[in-house]
Specification:
By secondary structure, the protein is an alpha+beta fold. The protein is built from 4 helices and 3 strands; from the N terminus they run ααααβββ. It has a 3-stranded antiparallel sheet, with helices on one face. A hairpin with a 3-residue loop joins strand 1 and strand 2 (about 125-130). Helix 3 (about 70-85) crosses helix 4 (about 100-110). The longest helix is centred in the N-terminal third of the chain and has 47 residues, at about 20-65. It is rod-shaped. Keywords: Membrane, Transmembrane, Transmembrane helix. InterPro entries: TadE-like_dom (IPR012495). Pfam families: TadE.
Length: about 160
């Protein structure tokens, strides 16, 4: 007579898919956590780039001095801001590899809200606003779109 299936064998057959289910649950939680961390770091990086661009614009205004015609000063400050943004890693690969093509891409993305240069009596105030939601550094997952900021801004002042 052949012995029947043991209790240990039955328990093993009932546990076949448990490891796959546990892996799926743990992996999804870890993926969302790591994605959130990477997305948050991307936003912080772009914020630093925008703040640095505002500082570069203020520095350019300070170097040009108070003898420069206001229209020329604004043009030169904006050029310094666009160049600073183009030299960072916020432009997509499709924008091109050269700084001039990346600068052109930045100018088109910021066409609706160009950097503002306020010329005061003794100082220059530079404000930069970057449309982050339209150009995120990390692709947005469907349920995380509301977490991303619409715009990132930077401000810097320099004496004239």
């Amino acid at each position: 007579m052949k012995p029947g299936p043991s209790l240990q064998g039955q328990a093993r057959r009932q546990q076949r898919g448990v490891a796959a289910i546990e892996f799926a649950l743990v992996f999804s939680v870890l993926f969302v956590g790591i994605y959130g961390l990477v997305a948050f770091c991307g936003v912080l990086y772009v914020q630093q780039v925008v703040s640095r661009a505002a500082e570069d614009g203020a520095r350019a205004a300070q170097i040009l001095g108070s003898n420069t015609v206001p229209a020329d000063l604004q043009t030169n400050v904006r050029t310094a801001i666009y160049r600073s943004l183009a030299l960072s890693a916020i432009t997509p690969a499709a924008a091109g590899a050269t700084p001039s093509t990346r600068e052109t891409w930045i100018r088109t993305q910021m066409a609706t809200t160009p950097p503002t240069v306020n010329l005061l009596a003794t100082e220059v105030e530079v404000r930069v606003s970057y449309p982050y939601r339209a150009n995120p550094l990390v692709p947005v997952l469907p349920f995380t779109a509301s977490w991303m900021p619409d715009r990132l801004s930077g401000k810097a002042t320099a004496t004239r």
